[in-house]
Here is the input.
Amino acid sequence: MSEALKSKIEVPIMSEIFAQGKKPEYLFWVGCAGAFDNRYMKVAKSFAYILNHIGADYAVLGTEESCTGDPARRAGNEMLFQMQALTNIDLFKMYEIKKVITICPHCYNVLKNEYPDLGADFEVISYLEFLYLQIKRGKLKLDKSKLQGKRVTYHDPCYLGRANNIYDIPRNLINELGVELAEMPRHKSFALCCGAGGAQMFKDAEKGTKEIFIERTEEALSVNPEIIATACPFCMTMITDGLKYKDKIDEISNLDIAELIATAMI
Here is the structure.
């Protein structure tokens, strides 16, 4: 992490901004992982650093943010999901939120595709879509020399790829870094799940001869990367566990695309 990212980042809070009579253009939805997981907090901080750097008009909910309810629905607790969703929708309406940026594909999918059934009316944007748009507009500039020549492979998150057909944008972002992109044998619509989706993250492994995260990590290692790029907190956890299992954690980095962008940012 760069020295700038090690320092304290000022993040605007929605309630404070709204009390001043202002309405930020974007709500940055941090998500449970970004709020509570020590590793993914670094991803949330990297993205907030980028937002501040380009002068984005945004705010976070802070302590008012709650879980989307996605894990509850995947685990079969529909009542809990709807309670969470309706509470969040009411909060969004109170703050007149029209655009939401997420750093978690699971949050992205449920907010974009499932909340409208319960009365939600706002645009949901993946942070990867947002980052690429800022690069194309010239607001976000990168120094390709910072990661020049690094061999990177990218793991497609299920809820970005198969669920929402976001395949090209993450690869476009990686290519903007001046690195060498090495595709795994199974990628894009054929990519293997990391093993944590569908609430599998929160339960013991089922009977079998091999865990999915080990199989996927082996696929990543087969292309000899220096960096495995991920774009999902669940995927990051599983790939990191896989690197530890294969005793490669000190040789190969597992970095979120936001972290890579923040590293190369001018």
About this structure: The first helix runs from residue 3 to 6. The beta strands are 26-29, 58-59, 99-102, 123-126, 151-154, 180-181, 227-230, 253-256. The domain at 3-132 is CATH 3.40.50 (Rossmann fold).
